[in-house]
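ingest -> validate -> predict -> emit
validate: passed (alphabet ok, no gaps, 439 aa)
predict: started
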Amino acid sequence: MVSTTESSAEPTSPGASNPDTPSSPWASLRDRNYRLFWVGGFVSNVGRWFQTVAVPAVIWQLTESAAWVGFTGFARMAPMALVSPIAGALADRFERRRLLAVTQSLQALATGLLLIAWISGVRSPTVYAGLSALAGVFGGLNLPGWKAFTNDLVPRERLLNAITLNSMQFNAARTVGPALAGVTLAALGPGWAFGINFISFGAVLAALWLIDVSSVPTGGASSFTPMRDFVETTRWVRTQPGIRQAMLTLCAVGLLGLPIQVLAVVFAEDVFRGSEREYGLMLTMIGLGAISAGPLVAGRGSVIDRSRLLSWSLSLYALGLATFALAPNLIVAFGGMLILGAAHLTTGSVLNTVVQVQVPGDRLAKVLSVHMLVLTLSSPVGQLVLGQIMSRLSPRLTIAFAAAALATAATGFIAFGRLKPLDWDGEQRHHQTGLSSPG
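emit:
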């Protein structure tokens, strides 16, 4: 419940609080360090999509079970939630560039084990679910540091621009990676997909090595107490209306929206009688939709209230899910995925920006670990639950239910004014409400 002083605070629009916000959608790419980080991430993410497409396709090939596909997605992402407290503390304590080099190398190791398992003739779905879980552990250790590193590379007024460009990079990779992965899987098999992903980690490792660390802040935490810090940070988040609502919104999207990216393989092969190629193209459409929205959000998003942007994107998200669920053919399904991509980029950019603008710098990595806990717990639970429902009812009814539930949640957020605190600027909010900036 929001206190009286919090409710009476006048929200400040992002544009008003940041008069120097750049209007160019490419502003952050002018910085050499950020540009290296962006390009390295793009190449690595193209490779990562080969694995993202290959694992559900392998599980479906071995089991023909939507429940198994959902369980494997759960196995990959649930460990990310478990390591979130440690990951946030690590990102605060150690120099983030070195930390990212270690976590990226560990993720390459997990991919190498998947490659070895496939070329050795292992065909047990349990093995691939287990190795996906290991990859999830290493990915979870990487995520808070990766997100916080963006904050180290660009000034505060360019955060939304840089975060949106990160999302565009990820989705640009999605337009290339899944389509190439689908063709590779169909023509050469999963071994090649795992191998390409393994090699692609070299790009981000090279970028991290080339970044000029003289202008990048180093870790400053003097103690390493991850669980105590995590509990204390969670309590602090509950007192911040904007951050709290961002987490709640992320939970709704994670439960009801994100699972489609894994469960779409069931539509591709069972509903539309296609193959890995069609599944790859579905994910490519999400990337194209995101790239379409990216320049608008990066260039003009900083002068539009975040609450308004999010209300639009949540409505689009529900529309995209409904369109995909009820699509009579692949062409219409692709249209639904385009809508989903635009909505996903906008939603993710806004929620990430809220966290990075409203959280003091000394808390950022810890709050991002809570942010990642919500995402990496809600999404696998959604995959597990929707996968089970899908195996008992039908894919179309399951995703239509998810669309209706997300639309209901979005309507409630908008109708009761729950999105307004997202517009507050962190420093001005502390001044207006009398809350001191936590140390």
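DSSP finds 18 helices and no strands in the chain.
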